[in-house]
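Hello,

Our lab assistant flagged a job as stuck in the queue for most of the afternoon. It eventually completed. Since we weren't sure the result was trustworthy after the delay, we are filing this so someone can double-check. Below is the sequence as submitted and the structure that was eventually returned. Let us know if re-running is recommended.
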Amino acid sequence: MKDDYAEFDLPRVWDIFNKKLDPIIASKCKICNISEEQIGYFEVYGIPAYVPVTFASYTKASGIQYCTLEVGIGVVPELRTLLYFQKVSDEDIYSSLHKIYRGIIAHRLPLKRIPNKT
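-- returned structure --
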């Protein structure tokens, strides 16, 4: 799409991921007194297709699982629609979306992983 917002926003965000996110997460872990065993991870994958949504899945410390689907990455954030889905069963919307997006990144290495552990 001509003048796609993501085309201009991506280099700025990628710079933040590469230069600033590691120390930010490390400092938050120290402030919250989180041990290395308790740290989750943040991964960014590059996929070879234009998907006009952003998918993210989370697990809270309480064990609650949920995901977000942000529609409209080609427009400014104020115009995007953000949907939240909580896992309530293995056959709900969360589980379906999680399976689809995990399938897309299956057998791929993340472009970025924080902390950088295997």
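-- support follow-up --
The delay was a queue issue, not a problem with the job. The result is valid. The helical segments are 5-31, 93-105. Residues 5-114 form one domain.
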